[in-house]
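Example 3.2
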Amino acid sequence: MNKVDRMKAVFENREPDRVPVGFWFHYPKELSLEERAQAHVDLCRKVGTDIVKVMDDNFGAFFTQGIKIDKPSDWRHIQLPGKDCSHYRNMTQLIQRILEKAGGEVMVFPTMWSPFKIASFTYLCSGSTDQQFMEHCKEDPESVLEGVKALAETLQEWTRDYLELGSSGIYYSGQFSEPQRFDEEVWSRLVKPSDLAVLGVTKEFTDKYNIVHICGEVEFGFQSSPRRYEGYPGDLFNWDVHRTDLPLEEGRAVFQKPILGGLDNHGVLIEGSLEEIREESKRIIGSMGKKGFMLGADCTVPATIDWARLKAAVEAAADI
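Structure, written as tokens:
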């Protein structure tokens, strides 16, 4: 099997020739667009990973540039640049260059932030705080929802464009399910609808896929609530199995979909020897089996990581 066929087997819950592997990290800001595109392809080719995840290292800074939220009701009046902003142009150009360089040898998945995370970036980029955003959610959730809806509509347009460029799907960063933020009832009312709106775009296509990453922030100990995402329109699910109460095997039963992950990006991948990484990779694959499983990390790995560590996991997967 080639890399595309291998991933299609996973998405279709079939057994591939070997378990595919994927890792990604954030790139230095000083890289040019051409250098950034080449770095993505180099990681895939030199390490032997099976997909390219296009990193969005703008972190929403350009999308909401110039927007300042002083009180919750300000969300009802935000005006977004839509496609007429540097963020959109940078991402579409990066995706195009990666697709050209990859030459169809691998599936390409651009990062798509959740609308709620973009809303949080709005505060951070205007000199405010995530804590202030949380206070506004409590004070006037209906106003916040108006703004988040506007963000979601723009992100739906961007998702559609990314897919029409030739991307294989999106890598959706599901955010704000940390148990310290909202209880499940409030989360379902505030966060979930905009998630589903963006993820639903991929389902307009017959040959595109959603990889759903359930992300916990560092200030909350990287915790999240992955069980809340049961029933989401994802085709491959990933979460931090080492800092939540949902092991890989149970996650497969919860989501009823293929699973990505298993390796601790704060543990064995960083602290273990190459042999320990190989052994842990083999243990995980032995537990999960080859069908409907992709080996990877709980989240992004450090940009400074020695690629030999990542290659050790790829080699282990190829040995089974």
